[in-house]
Amino acid sequence: MRILVTGGAGFIGSAVAGAYLRAGHEVVVVDNLSTGRRDWVPAGAVFYQLDVTDPGLERVFSEHRFDVVNHHAAQVSVTRSVADPVGDARTNILGSLALLGFAVRFGVRRFIFASSCAVYGEADWRPTPESAPPGPLSPYGLAKRVVEDYLRLYGDLTGLEWVALRYANVYGPRAKPHTEAGVVTVFATEILRGRRPTVFGDGLQTRDFVYVDDVVEANLRALDRGAGVFNIGTGRETSVLELFRMLARITGFEAPPAFEPARPGEVRFSSLDPGRAREVLGWSAQVDLADGLLRVVEALRKGGS
Ligand SMILES: NC(=O)c1ccc[n+]([C@@H]2O[C@H](COP(=O)([O-])OP(=O)(O)OC[C@H]3O[C@@H](n4cnc5c(N)ncnc54)[C@H](O)[C@@H]3O)[C@@H](O)[C@H]2O)c1
Predict the structure, then answer these.
(1) Which residue in 5, 44, 151, 280 is deepest, having the highest Cβ count within 10 Å?
(2) Are residue 162 and residue 190 in the same domain, yes or no?
(3) The total number of structural domains that make up the chain
(4) Are residues 72 and 176 located together in one domain of the fold?
(5) Cβ < 6 Å from ligand 1: which residues?
(6) Is residue 280 part of a domain?
């Protein structure tokens, strides 16, 4: 297949692009390198340094005639989306909409979208299924939700196949501090420097941490399976304090964490029910947290990625 991966110079997109290439597909990466790195674009992919809102994208679509668009490019900081909702919407809503328009015009068969657990906000029950009502607490979460609605509409109107993968908190060696699972990178980096990481609030807030290789596998399966929205998480909750303890155990760090007041607007508890992904995509997370954290620590010890 000919596949466009937007955001293919970033943490998750570069891993997805690499896996598509290894599976024998032709891959084109579009990324404006705002947080991504040119040297993370896998060898073998055609690369365009382009913003997803750039009209020049039309030429890329007309030249490559994609079968699939895999859309990972985004403004990924929840905090920044609160400070600059217009800028967030420009990339995350208008950029996505532009891509969707080109996908329909140029006969793309399937659109895979990197959505987020942020669409749920503080859910009433956990692990949260896809059927739970959305309640985003940030412009970032709202934009993800809006794009899912556009996908639904365009799918109905034009027959475009679409899949939205709602990721839990994705962690791995290349994850950056500002993203949704940034706490893993921040804690591990601080501990390896011999500094006490800061816990905001009581540390009992929970997250569903899913390893990047598992997320890549979901993107491989979504190439020709499934329709609609899928949670990509483990269904397990780990508190921020427990995460600290696990990292401390792995590294032999003995000091306690530092505490600061809770940050307003943060979701308190979060975990995603992966039942539908298991049933329809045959997907479930394979890397357990202790193993994944060990891989992150080893990568950071070797000097990043
Ligand atoms: N990391 C997580 O825990 C997590 C959780 C849920 C959803 N997601 C989603 O997964 C996707 C990838 O996130 P990531 O964690 O790899 O972050 P990342 O910052 O590493 O990747 C985002 C990539 O998009 C590129 N980009 C940003 N704005 C762009 C624009 N306007 N035009 C073109 N390229 C642009 C960046 O340069 C970067 O390479 C995003 O859509 C994000 O919202 C991530």
Answers:
(1) 5
(2) no
(3) 2
(4) no
(5) 7, 9-13, 31-36, 51-52, 72-76, 91, 95, 114, 116, 167, 169-170, 176, 179-181
(6) no
CA of 70 to the centre of ligand 1 (A): 12
**Structure-token pair, residue 141:** 């979460």
Residues 43 and 74 reside in one and the same domain? yes
Q: What is the mean pLDDT of residues 269-283?
A: 98
Q: Which two tokens stand for residue 267?
A: 């979701």
Active site residues: 140
Residue 132 has pLDDT above 70, yes or no: yes
What is the token pair recorded at 249?
């155990």
* Domain of residue 174, residue span: 170-207+236-272+286-301
Residue 19 pLDDT level (bands cut at 50, 70, 90): very high
State the pLDDT confidence band at 181, using cuts at 50, 70 and 90: low
The reported pLDDT for the residue numbered 180 is 61
Q: Are residues 297 and 160 in the same domain?
A: no
Please tell me whether the overall predicted TM-score, pTM, comes out greater than 0.85 for this model.
yes
Mean pLDDT of 151-156: 98
Count the Cβ atoms, other than its own, within 10 Å of residue 75: 20
CATH of the domain at 85: 3.40.50.720
